[in-house]
Amino acid sequence: MASYDVIVIGGGPGGYVAAIRCAQLGLKTACVEGRDTLGGTCLNVGCIPSKALLHASHQLHEAQHNFTKMGLMGKSPSVDWKQMQAYKADVIDGNTKGIEFLFKKNKVDWIKGWGSIPAAGQVKVGDDIHDAKNIIIASGSVPSSLPGIEIDEEIVVTSTGALSLPKIPKKLAVIGAGVIGLELGSVYARLGSEVTVIEFLDVITPGMDGEIQKTFQRTLKKQGLNFIMGAAVQSVDASKTKAKVHYKLRKDDSDHSLDADVVLVATGRKPFTDGLGLDALGVEMTPRGQIKTNAHWQTNVAGIYAIGDAIEGPMLAHKAEDEGMAAAEVIAGKHGHVNYAVIPGVIYTAPEVANVGQTEEQLKAEGRAYKVGKFSFMGNGRAKANFAADGFVKILADAQTDRILGAHIMGPAAGDLIHEICVAMEFGASAQDLALTCHAHPTYSEAVREAALACGDGAIHA
Ligand code: NAI
Hints:
This protein is α/β, with parallel strands linked by helices.
């Protein structure tokens, strides 16, 4: 069989980006992918299809709530679920074919099938063994359920099933107020489902800035999502058409249950490394089942690298992509680097929520002196014109040096706005640097500048 400089196992955002970068750097490269299409979870059953449903349901929300205010009269649209699913399928198709095109353009061979590593320097796919000087494992992650809950992907579903339900459920129970639960929960709430989110902790989106957590939850409640907080789900009884979620309230250990037509289990994901043969190879793993790597994405076995959800760190497509590029550069003898301190996180609800760097809670815990610059979208003309004035930009800067330490945004296009702060942080900028940068009017970005001004002598429109 063919012999390669690099074989990447997995064609998701980590793997396909690594493969393309390897090829661009002159390495003979193949990518092994067992799905019928490239793009992994993200393009097939994750980021991209969920964004299609978020977009469609947001348009419906706009039509129902804001059109008449703007003089756009007439009956508000009804939902053709089959057509919405077809639109979603088209979006997936366009994106996955795009990766296939990029592979051809960059001369990356797609080896179709599931790969394993019988020995360092070899990748087995079906009956074929391919030689590879270097192997990058980019095998991703799968949903992790809870004990006592059986997933059937029809009544009790993960994000995969939730993206392709046969019909819009009347009652949807969501277990877990993390990113998946809130994104998909808000899709179905906008499409008319009665959505109840059951969360173990007393706050939603664990790890995020506390002020954002509170404002975000209030906003989601206003949008019709119900929350049962501090509740540990114990089990789910499911029939062919309905389910009952059993949970215990942590404050008094009392037992309760909730009926639903569909239950979405969104309690996290776990690395997917089954069938790779890592045990036999002696690849070191962390206690949480992640592949252990050093600062250059090398495992303890020479010539085997790992990136993305299969290793430590946030399970985010863009983190995997960055690691993919950096690992490729290391293999090519360059100096691949990922700045883990500046990886943005985005929740694609409406309004969006985005963050980068440290939270106030982290800074307090470190005993660091910091200042806060905040600006509400209520003071942003563009947001007001677009019925999108819910939320704020919050910038945290060092009290002495003014260097930006973190930013937290809830509001329109937050997932895009966060990037000017990421770039600023990469360059070690101060809040004043941002504040002195001219921002076009009228844009949402002005809210970022105003928050930066608020770190100094004050915002203008507050
Ligand atoms: P998550 O880790 O974000 O949230 C899981 C939630 O479930 C937590 O709030 C946890 O406290 C709760 N939980 C756990 N056990 C529970 C129980 N027994 N009863 C009630 N609640 C319980 O996990 P999620 O949302 O499933 O996402 C998985 C991964 O995928 C995350 O790493 C996320 O970052 C990533 N992802 C990122 C997206 C984005 O960047 N927009 C979109 C979708 C997923």
